[in-house]
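Hey, resending since the last one bounced:
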Amino acid sequence: MTIRTSSDSNPIFLRRVDSPIGRLELTGDGEAVTSLTIERAGHLPHEGFPEHSDPVLEQAAEQLAEYFSGTRRDFDVPVKLVGTAFQQSVWTRLVDVDFGEEISYGELGISTGRATAGRAVGGAVGANPIPIIVPCHRVLASNHKITGYSGGKGIPTKVWLLDHEGIEHTV
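The structure tokens again:
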């Protein structure tokens, strides 16, 4: 997966996708996916705008369909992650967590050189602009407990994603 970090994240392209966890909205800049939003309470951020896709978003839509059907375990579509240096270090580490595996917030903090920054790690995970493709759902408490999820319907969405990947967890 190619990760770009330019600060220009204005969406130029827009694509919506149906999924088992609700509608998804992808935005892109012509070079990379810049956001993925999971429908919340029946709404998406750019629902008033018509779709205007590009090859990158088409590739992302195809890979998401394969992921949800169980035939894809990782993504290789380019993404552009815009955030602080710390957020980017957390998001880059998330990409290394494979399908069916999990990482704890503490382990994630240690791997980014911030072993005692639990709240900051949690904040960076929650601010991930491209969930699923950058798999923040694979982050759990050290006892495998789900502590929250900001996408879609919240914890039920995370439960679905974890179950889909066979990741052991408790609520």
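The longest helix spans residues 55-69.

Sorry for the duplicate.
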